[in-house]
Specification:
The structure is a homodimer. The first copy, chain A, is of the alpha/beta class. Chain A folds into two domains: 11-226, Alanine racemase (TIM Barrel), CATH 3.20.20.10; 239-352, Lyase, Ornithine Decarboxylase, Chain A, domain 1. Chain A contains 13 helices and 20 strands. In chain A, strand 5, helix 5 and strand 6 (119-126) form a beta-alpha-beta unit. Chains A and B meet through helix 5, strand 11 and helix 13 of A and helix 5, strand 11 and helix 12 of B.
Chain lengths: 353, 353
Amino acid sequence: MHPFPTLIVDLDIVRTNIERMTAKAEKADVEFRPHFKTHQSRKIGRMFKDYGVKAITVSSPIMAEYFVEDGWNDITIAFPANVLASSYYHRLASRCNLKTLVISSEIVKKLDKLITEKMGLYIEIDPDYGRSGIPVSQTEKIAEVLNEIEESDHFYPAGFYCHAGHTYKTRSEEEIKELSLKALKKLTALKKKWPDLPLCFGDTPSCSVLDEFVPADQISPGNFVFYDWMQVQIGSCTPNEIAVYMECPVVEKFEDRKQVLVHGGAVHFSKESIQVNDYLSYGEPRLKHLSKATYMKSLSQEHGIVQCSKEVFEQIKVGESLQVFPIHSCLTADLMGQYHTTNGKVLDHLSGT
Amino acid sequence: MHPFPTLIVDLDIVRTNIERMTAKAEKADVEFRPHFKTHQSRKIGRMFKDYGVKAITVSSPIMAEYFVEDGWNDITIAFPANVLASSYYHRLASRCNLKTLVISSEIVKKLDKLITEKMGLYIEIDPDYGRSGIPVSQTEKIAEVLNEIEESDHFYPAGFYCHAGHTYKTRSEEEIKELSLKALKKLTALKKKWPDLPLCFGDTPSCSVLDEFVPADQISPGNFVFYDWMQVQIGSCTPNEIAVYMECPVVEKFEDRKQVLVHGGAVHFSKESIQVNDYLSYGEPRLKHLSKATYMKSLSQEHGIVQCSKEVFEQIKVGESLQVFPIHSCLTADLMGQYHTTNGKVLDHLSGT
């Protein structure tokens, strides 16, 4: 047993998750450009090659570098271009088919003075999520940015990129479907106006429950490779489809309050939480039988307090480990910096390199 | 300007914070055993030596190893002993004067079979915080654990360790004082019963506002070295005493909603938040003049959305950086893995090594 909190990955589940999403993309006739921000692992990244994946999505120039060095040569940095990092884009664009996102013609102008390599620019479209992007209704602004891209000698329009992140607020498969179909419907006018420009869509909840993505041409989900307890709550997956869990040493038991202290805190899980029924959960013990009364109740820097049902409390033993599903696998993996497979091998993660 | 989110440390403020706490401990006649879990930096750790600090506190065996290798030889791991990590305690105890916490005689018995080096054990006392430790009223249980320690050939009683973590729920200096004095008062009976055993007390809020710590003999605050926006809200410090801030590239501005997109997300700040008046803040822009309407409204993996007052929005420029105080400096530093000083030097952090 591991002496410290350890992130375990079940590669069989990873493979099944990749296989299912690849098959779905193929059937729906959309290009699959998976987001690698969840696993951030070269070894896990290579598993996608077995399924014909050639183009990937990342969330930062550093992450793009990590995968360029592993032979990937069609990479989209799905984050609005940061002019302070222009030298990174320039260098990356000389090494691969690089694309990133833009929202304003001002940025395109600024980048055009700083980058002389050929590079694709997606215009980010906001489907009422409200985080980033041009609202889908602002056709004039979209045309203005597109025009600016076309005037550049170095840039070409890569298409439209649209992340419907508000699906994370749903709590059932039906709700996800309703919300994502509404977002896709809004994009129809855009696609009609610019039929030749690829439209990339894709958050894990939408891509998990939809079978058709019209009018989108590409999908780029990321979290689906592992899933997590948040995705179970949203309605994207079942607990059996979660590919990662933490193994936390059981340090003490508190009989009177039916709580267990594990080594596993905010520096391991992250401080992400989700409301589950009437409690706020920071992690969900991976038990043979689901127990509504058992959940990670609080996290300090290194402490995790697990509230237990009477039965679960009696089964847990000091000196053993408790397996816990993370609420948000992307953040937990980023903190842990490496994976241990169920066969005891160690896999890389960018943050641990 | 840094192209990516960067953690800046102002060493003048660090020095002032250390100096103030050292002077306070001296005046109050308590031993100062600072917690190093906040900075986790050898270089920052060495600054404490200038103020006569000889004994330190950490939160894990790995952190203890990091500081043993930098010459510290009196180290308390302020986390209940994890029997799965017994080989680490054993090895550490052969290299320094090691202490850790215990809560039950069962654990003392188990450890005694696994560790043959001399080692101190603090009995952790819970001052109604409810996370870990023996409730202060359970004198019999305390005596039982103490007895088990005294029967061991390898262990000796290091004293009582008491973390009043519920001070983090207060919202003014007066509230902190009331709560921490109440906790200290509860410890009086313990001290009377075992006058020869040192009593270690200390969370940053209590140590920041109290001047006397009777009946405690030692204090071990950690966060005070940097402080953060949570400590400002709790009532422990002023914004001028915060020694760290993030520099985040300003990527885009959204005029209609007076929001700014910065590169700086949950993998940089952590997902810690705090309720400030009527909003939930994930970070507080470091501005010349405080603006109640300006705060970090949401964080995704790499995105930070800053809600701005009209005036602040106009001052912020794309292609520049925005300085942001973290909500919880311990977690932000752990994620960032290194510090940049205001003079451009880079300082180590355990997680980046």
